[in-house]
Amino acid sequence: MIPSRPVKIPEHRWKRHAEGLLGVAASIILFLMMFLTFVDVVLRYLFNRPIASAFELTELMLVVLIFAGLPLVSWADEHVTMDFIDRLLSPSARQRLERGVHVISAAIMAFLTWQVWLKADKIWGYRDATDVLRVVYGPFVYFMAVMIGLTGAIHLYKAFGPGTGSAVPQ
Q1: d(CA 95, CA 80)
Q2: How many CB atoms lie within 10 A of CB 134?
Q3: Neighbours of 160 (CB within 10 A)
Q4: pTM score, two decimals?
């Protein structure tokens, strides 16, 4: 009997470019957050002149960073996992378990997308904005909903798409 191994599907060029582009964008956002915090601390403690909107800018960049990263983490199967059950299952049972987890994850993401979208509608209706810069929160909450929806779509693809074998090392 030939041992079961995950099937390596050749990656398309667009996937590598998308991952690279999103990785660079995430790195830039993270660097900007770090730089903004550094400058704010220096100005605050050396010159007693903090950047008034530093907290707001950091908060908004953090939202973009976290929710833009969510589909990437799901695509790469880089979630925190507990694999103590996997060792007890056969490869086919492991594959069914993994598909089931992806289906449940997709359902949860669909529900969250719906709820966050409803919240975004309310926030947009109120024109709720940050205190100092008056940046409207609505587009950021819509962005969150779209990224959660994309994550759900990725989980559906991983459950039913072509080449959906076990991604768990055998």
Answers
A1: 18
A2: 10
A3: 12
A4: 0.80
Find the range with the poorest average confidence among 44-58, 70-84, 144-158.
70-84
* Close Cβ partners of 141 (under 8 Å, ≥ 6 residues apart): 116, 119, 120, 123, 124
Look at the chain and report how many structural domains it folds into: 1
Span 98-149, pLDDT tens digits: 899 999 999 999 999 999 999 999 999 999 999 999 999 999 999 999 999 9
Structure token pair of residue 32: 């900007």
Residue 1 falls within a domain, yes or no?
A: no
Does 119 reside within a domain? yes
Tell me, yes or no, whether 35 lies in a domain.
yes
Domain-embedded: residue 58: yes
Query: Residues with Cβ < 8 Å from 57, sequence gap 6 or more?
Result: 36, 133
Q: Distance between CA 120 and CA 115 in Å, rounded? A: 9
Q: 67: domain range?
A: 13-160
